Amino acid sequence: MQLLTVKNTSQGTLPNLIIIGAMKCGTTSLHYYLNLHPQISMSQEKELKFFLEEKNWHRGVEWYKSHFTTPAQVHGESSPSYTKYPFFEGVPERMYSLIPDAKLIYIVRDPIKRIISHYVHKYANGNENRTLTEALANFENNKYISRSLYYLQLKQYLAYYPDSNILILTLEDLYHNPQLSLQKTFRFLNVDNNFSINYMIKKYHDSAVKRRKNHWGNLISKFPVINQIDLLPSHLKWHMENIIYYPFSEKIERPVLTENLRLELIDYLRQDINCLRDYTKQEFKDWCV
């Protein structure tokens, strides 16, 4: 694996906080809430994907540091792609080689609800044309199911980072009691845990209101000027796409798992989730697994 050499520079600093996932588990909300704390500065572009060799690793350390220029005690970024093993490998090793003292946050949710939300996300973006049942026909190395094998993903990081540097949160707790979840996070980051967010703006990209581009929306997406949207920060890109494509899209009905497939998934995920329970000493009572 190619490692990078760190040079001293006044153009930014390296982060000491990484939200490593999981995808469709509230990382956008958590990123937003943490950035409200006066001692924390989260990257303006949420998903830097720096530690992915296939994405931005080649851009180098100076590019990465340039995203953390605001004075703060904690600098962080959030890239759910960091827990997409085995599709992206070597991420913890690259991360540890550069920021060995970083704090890591892994936010998870009911694994089957996450799978469905992930599928709806891909279907809405036009990157998935299969039915949910077809997409889950094979369990091994399945891009939807592997992201819900939380302990498998976490285990990659435990080979490098100590337990004291890793915090596990749940979307359910963040949704039902956000202030308590944030206080727990603030203590983990050694910042003022008495800081209170009075108005919690909902940032969840709810799968229930997802839309998929129709024929005209697909035609519009091919216009060269539309490609410029990809250059915007992720939060602006999301809003711009909603504005442009809303009239040329259709509401997606949330898919439902067949009972047999649901039971098969529960059986397949059970061992991994029980390992997560043993590691975290949390029961995850609201989960179906």
TrEMBL record:
Gene Ontology terms, MF aspect: sulfotransferase activity
InterPro entries reported for this sequence: NST/OST, P-loop_NTPase, Sulfotransferase_dom
SUPFAM superfamilies noted in UniProt: P-loop containing nucleoside triphosphate hydrolases
Alphabetical keyword list: Glycoprotein, Transferase
Source species, domain of life: Bacteria
Sulfotransferase domain: residues covered: 15-198
PANTHER family: BIFUNCTIONAL HEPARAN SULFATE N-DEACETYLASE_N-SULFOTRANSFERASE, HEPARAN SULFATE SULFOTRANSFERASE
Protein's recorded name: Sulfotransferase
